[in-house]
Specification:
Layout (H helix, E strand, L loop, with lengths): L6 H22 L4 H19 L5 H7 L1 H17 L6 H9 L2 H10 L1 H20 L10 H28 L4 H4 L3 H18 L1 H4 L8 E2 L7 E8 L18 H4 L4 E3 L3 E2 L5 H8 L17 H7 L3 E6 L7 H6 L4 E4 L16 H9 L4 E7 L31 H29 L2 E8 L4 E2 L7 E2 L7 H4 L3 E5 L1 H6 L1 H9 L5 E2 H13 L1 E2 L20 E3 L5 E3 H4 L2
Parallel strand pairs: 2-7, 2-8, 4-12, 5-6, 5-7
Antiparallel strand pairs: 1-13, 3-11, 8-11, 9-10, 14-15
């Protein structure tokens, strides 16, 4: 603290703080030796020259504050994921995540936040208190020496960058921090703008949807979108714990053990489930409407209920296309907690109206961290479940709490099936999760989801379809197709939309039966993952 108060030491401390992400990324990211050198030397040169634009380094601390902020943000994410730059989706998550989720996450990252505070707060403090002092300045000789060093580094960095380009595979916008992060910011701003213009760009779109099932038969379809549920923790799929006892006993249920999502982020995976957009053609999301509009065009009364807060994403946009929509937490205080079971009252209201054709879409909070807040205390079978800090040492408690969320999901889905069965309608329910979760598995040190390079724990998701007796009797070909494809690989982001249309007998030029589990024509396609920059890539190329 005594040394950093001196001008030269403040400059050095600021330089180190700015360069730390470059050093860390050069160690953990897959790069050639030349790229590693470039990623340290070239930005280091820029930092040195930038910090000497004023002889008062305190002023340059605040002039470089955006870079210091990015540096701190990057270090926290490196602590969390161990790799990768700040992704486009990370910036979008900042505007599509509610304050309750942020507070829960930050509470689990105290070591990282505390470490960043120790590094950056003293720099910002002395940058503030020395900002206006005229006597707080580097001597001209020191400024000259730093600039000479910076120029030398710059020359070496440019040479290294050129050699890296010649060697192939190196791109500044992809590999050079913080240029790549600034490019990601631009992409995030562009996507936010395109989302804001959605009403205009999709105005003239129509599914030309037509219902083909008998008009006099009452039909009810429920699409349940889970949150952060991974297949490996479902007893239905052979998990060592019996986390799905009710679903295992449910008559008419088909479970798909090879279901995978194309994104490990909620704000992209859920809209893909609710629309025809896929990793291979994601940009159609900006010009087409969602599945709720397709059902409405076909004459269905549509209901959207969410146990998550609105976040100005396509989840809200597609949900609000319904005849009736409600976000249960919208009018509650930020920290208010509602368990998913409370959504059943909304389902009861929709069923009690007695309409002939109904679609209900439920967006649950499922297994989102903080896990122990997602279920009533009486559902806490696996104990202890009280640890919340993000630490591998707490894995047993975290896993217990997570498994309790799956057990609670089992009870909610079972109660939903009971209601559909009691309605007497030809009914079907489809459940899947947006993505999975890392819980310090396999010694990887990964926790939570949305890492720029996904793990199998984030991609392997549950997929369940239930049909009522009346539906199976009336549409045996669909029931047979759904049962027949149960052992095949399913890309949920591509297939759920078309499967729901097929189950409901909705004909539209947009429906693709080769992607529908409800059709004999279903054929598993290639498994592409939607990268942070919305580029489809074979999952083997991006998965950890």
């Amino acid at each position: 603290m005594k040394h950093i108060s001196r001008p030269l030491w403040l400059l050095i401390a600021t330089f180190i703080a700015l360069l730390l992400p470059n050093v860390w990324l050069s160690i953990v990211e897959p790069m050639t030796v030349g790229a590693r050198i470039t990623n340290i030397v070239l930005p280091g040169a820029a930092y040195l020259l930038l910090l000497t634009l004023s002889r008062n380094p305190a002023r340059m601390v605040w002039a470089t504050f955006p870079l210091l902020f990015l540096s701190a943000f990057q270090l926290v994410l490196l602590y969390l994921y161990g790799h990768s730059i700040i992704a486009v989706d990370m910036f979008l998550n900042l505007v599509t995540t509610n304050t309750a989720e942020v507070s829960e996450l930050l509470g689990s990252l105290l070591p990282a936040v505390g470490g960043v505070a120790v590094i950056f707060l003293p720099i910002l403090y002395f940058g503030a208190v020395r900002f206006r002092r005229k006597d707080y300045a580097l001597d001209p000789g020191t400024v000259h020496r730093v600039r000479v060093a910076g120029t030398g580094w710059l020359l070496a960095g440019v040479i290294s960058m050129c050699l890296s380009y010649l060697a192939g595979g190196y791109r500044v916008k992809d590999d050079l921090y913080p240029v790549n992060v600034c490019y990601n910011i631009w992409l995030a701003v562009d996507r936010t703008g395109r989302t804001a213009r959605y009403a205009e760009t999709s105005r003239d779109f129509t599914f030309e949807a037509v219902a083909t099932h008998p008009a006099d038969r009452r039909e009810v379809y429920v699409m349940v979108i889970g949150e952060t549920a991974r297949a490996e923790n479902f007893g239905l799929y052979g998990y060592s714990r019996d986390t799905t006892p009710r679903l295992a006993a449910a008559d008419g249920l088909v479970a798909y053990p090879q279901a995978y999502t194309q994104s490990n982020t909620t704000h992209k995976s859920v809209p893909m489930l609710m629309s025809a957009a896929t990793a291979e053609d994601y940009d159609r999301i900006y010009r087409e409407k969602g599945i709720i509009s397709a059902f409405r065009e076909a004459g269905f009364h549509t209901v959207f209920i969410s146990n998550q807060r609105p976040n100005h994403s396509f989840i809200d946009i597609f949900g609000e296309e319904a005849d009736t929509w409600r976000f249960l937490k919208e009018e509650l205080p930020a920290g208010a907690n509602i368990h998913d079971g409370e959504m059943l009252a909304e389902v009861d209201r929709a069923l009690a109206e007695g309409r002939g054709k109904v679609l209900i879409v439920l967006h649950t909070y499922g297994s989102h961290f903080e896990y122990r807040e997602r279920y009533p205390r009486e559902m806490a079978r696996f104990l202890p479940d009280d640890a919340v800090e993000a630490s591998a040492a707490n894995r047993e408690c975290l896993l217990n709490a997570y498994d309790n969320t799956i057990l609670y999901t089992d009870s909610v889905l079972d109660a939903l099936i009971g209601r559909l069965r009691a309605s007497g309608a030809d009914a079907g329910m489809l459940y899947t999760s947006d993505h999975g979760e890392n819980i310090y598995d396999d010694g990887s040190g990964l926790f939570l989801h949305a890492s720029p390079r996904p793990s199998i724990h984030e991609l392997h998701v549950p997929l369940l379809v239930w049909l009522s007796d009346g539906y199976r009797a009336g549409h045996p070909e669909v029931a047979e197709a759904l049962q027949g494809h149960r052992e095949e690989r399913v890309i949920t982001s591509a297939s759920v939309f078309h499967t729901m249309l097929g189950m409901a007998g909705i004909a539209t030029p947009v429906r693709c039966d080769s992607l529908s589990l409800a059709s004999p024509a279903y054929r598993p396609g290639p498994y592409n993952y939607l990268t942070d920059r919305n580029i489809p890539r074979p999952v083997e190329d991006v998965m950890l």
